[in-house]
Amino acid sequence: MARYTGPRARICRRLEYPVYESAKFLSLRKSYPPGQHGQSRRRKLSNYGIQLREKQRIKYLYGILERQFRNYFKKASLAEGATGDNLLITLESRLDNTVYRLGLAPTRRAARQLVTHKHFLINNRLVNIPSYNLNEG
């Protein structure tokens, strides 16, 4: 499956949020967005712009691309309860995120690599799919 491999500091600057866990992205040298007009006066974001930025933050935070995110959103909207809560529950139950939350990897990207290199058994079976959905129990 594909994943974003481009410049990470640029994404953090564009979203004005440290979406990658590495310490070097927490304090950026340039506090303004990238591009030709990054340093000029910023306009107030519209409601759509705010929603888009939050969606992009979640996508980059969990390391998933647009189509997979859209599929997660469809499943969350069909389930009972609040769509946002269902979406976060689904994203948090991914195998790579669980490995990161357990502290077995320093970042989500490192957790993804550990999973793809077959370091984990689930129900006595090797699993190398980072998006594998874990259930309670």
Structure description:
Pfam families: Ribosomal_S4, S4. One of its GO terms (biological process) is translation. InterPro entries: Ribosomal_uS4, Ribosomal_uS4_bac-type, Ribosomal_uS4_CS, Ribosomal_uS4_N, S4_RNA-bd, S4_RNA-bd_sf. One of its GO terms (molecular function) is structural constituent of ribosome. Keywords: Ribonucleoprotein, Ribosomal protein, RNA-binding, rRNA-binding. This protein has 137 residues and is an all-alpha fold. It has two domains: 81 residues, Orthogonal Bundle (Ribosomal Protein S4 Delta 41, Chain A, domain 1); 45 residues, RNA-binding S4 domain (Structural Genomics Hypothetical 15.5 Kd Protein In mrcA-pckA Intergenic Region, Chain A, Roll), CATH 3.10.290. It has six helices and two strands. The model has no long low-confidence stretch (mean pLDDT 87).
Secondary structure blueprint with pairings:
Elements: H1 8-15, H2 47-62, H3 66-78, H4 83-92, H5 95-101, H6 108-116, E1 121-122, E2 125-126
Antiparallel strand pairs: 1-2
Helix pairs in contact: 3-4, 5-6
